[in-house]
Amino acid sequence: MMKVILLAIFLAVAQANLQANMKNFLNFATKYGKSYSDIEFGNRFQIFQNNIQLAAQYQARDSTAQYGVTKFMDLTPAEFAANYLMPKELFLNHKPDPKKVKLPYRKEIKLPASFDWRDKGAVSAVYDQGQCGSCWAFSATETIESYHFLAGNSMVGLSQQQIVDCDTSSYGCNGGWTEHAFNYIEQAGGQDTLASYPYTAQDGTCMANPSNFGAKLKSWAYVTQSDDENAMCQSLVQTGPAAICVDASSWQFYNGGVISSCGQQVDHCVQLTGYSVQSGVNAWNVRNSWGTDWGLQGYLYVARNGQNVCAIGGDVIYLTE
Hints:
Layout: H1 2-31, H2 38-61, E1 65-67, H3 77-84, H4 89-92, E2 115-116, H5 135-150, H6 160-166, H7 178-188, E3 191-192, E4 213-215, E5 220-224, H8 229-238, E6 242-246, E7 254-259, E8 268-278, E9 281-287, E10 299-303, E11 316-319
Parallel strand pairs: 7-10
Antiparallel strand pairs: 1-7, 2-8, 3-4, 5-11, 6-8, 6-11, 8-9, 9-10
Helix pairs in contact: 5-6, 5-7
């Protein structure tokens, strides 16, 4: 009799969980405008349930961040990586050029407790790269926009698509390196405005037009090849935002807080806009390119604790002129 009672309780709990997950799934689909065929609906609901469990696992090992339902909840981790990240293999043998390592400040200063270039108007609005592994082009473009502004110009949106289409040393929607993007813009003599060369989220034919250039780039350098937080903070405050590349595989389920547990295999490039203290936790302020309906209006926090969380300090680039 006891076994029967326990089985009944188990089935009741399972049914209640199933109903709760279905309700959450329908709310998710409504919120993000998802539409599925009858066959696809069941498949995506199962993936959603699996991801609920995965998000709970991330939460269990990272108490300073919040993980849960995001707009990527109906994608398997493999689908998410294929559509929104870059192949990790691209960076396995990636070696920064030691000749390009140059601290872009002459002396150290007393740093403020928190700092963000958004407060200075030096960061453009959050972009959405869509289902294209073009984050490297976005990271580079965002940084060129910031330094163009800091040089005394109005903020102007620049063409990520130009880099995707024209930088033949990288792979467009299949990934690339911010270094290559910067080198390309140097060699091309400038970057088209976003208005003249809009983003399509797919590979295309190069149509760069010097008459439409909105900004130029003279030089760039790595600040550090390891997690030297002081150098990163000094450079950030004294020079400007940085283009960085990170491990973002756990970001699929990020909702808020400070990420303190993360991988170390780079698969995504973003922009470092500042640093802060969040609920007593030292954090890097990171701008992503997955739209404002992800994370904290398109931003996230990564722990600034000397542990190189998400490999955040391994590929840090500032513009030097």
